[in-house]
Structure prediction request, 307 residues.
Amino acid sequence: MSEIILPEVELNIHTPKNPTEAVVVENYVCTAESSPNIVRHITLDLTGTELDGHFRTGQSIGVLAPGEDHRGKPHKVRLYSLSSPTKGEGGNQHLVSTTVKRANEEVDGTFYTGVCSNYICNLKVGDKVKVTGPSGKRFLLPENVDDFNFVFFATGTGIAPFRGMILELLESGFKGQVVLVFGCPYRTDVLYPELFDRLEEEHENFHFVKMISREDRRPDGSKYYVQTAIEDRADLLDPILGSDNTLIYLCGMKGMETGIYHNLAKKGFMGYLRLKGQPSTEDPNEWGWKEAKELLKPSDRTFEEVY
Ligand code: A2P
Prediction:
């Protein structure tokens, strides 16, 4: 396998103590149909700030919501993965975008609204936002992308960095294989469906695999999850995952990594993994979830961002 050469990136040009101001130029819902899980695509203009031109796809931008928390302290910075490619949203180098889900939930009869995600989702074109960054130095595409194939696993808004990375790869004429495995509860929750369906039509080396968890069931009655694609779409994934020059990236809800690593181990794709400690038995099918979680860690061919 070729050496993985990660680009040098700039970090923390602006910090929470010293933020700069971006201007909202776009804010739209990024599901095709009405969905109870409202996810929005927000584009920010960095023109005139020191951040302009300094983000790479895969990095995150920090947002400071105005106001104070229940202890009277200013809200802490929240990090959002960029969903734009390095050359900028829509090819405009001054613009970056992100993908934000309104975090609203009821716990024991109390309704909580996510401060920063609702602040961002309510922003109007022309509004100014305090931002920081760039953040993140490993969850990046390598400089030598042409040496690799890429398999991206995303749940929900974990798709954000992969939108940027996939646009970056396909728009530069990348010839290797690119797979996006995306998991969400219902078909109406698929994010950027038109974009990814179009890219799949236009590029024979791009494959968009949707794993919908709450509609159909797998033959054994279990849910379709991103990790079950390793079995359910073995026709597509076996040759790609089995190739020595494939890198995998996962982004989304904490816990997804264990399912993916366990299913990779069951299929013998150990190049993506590093073992921490000794397994109780050689057969991965015999490992329970807890053992898989403690044992299986990402190798240098695996890029993980879970939250
Ligand atoms: P479910 O909630 O039906 O169990 P969203 O962020 O839009 O809610 O989507 C997250 C998706 O990830 C859902 O389809 C959810 O399924 C699924 N999911 C939940 N737990 C896991 C897990 N441990 N591994 C992979 N996917 C998961």
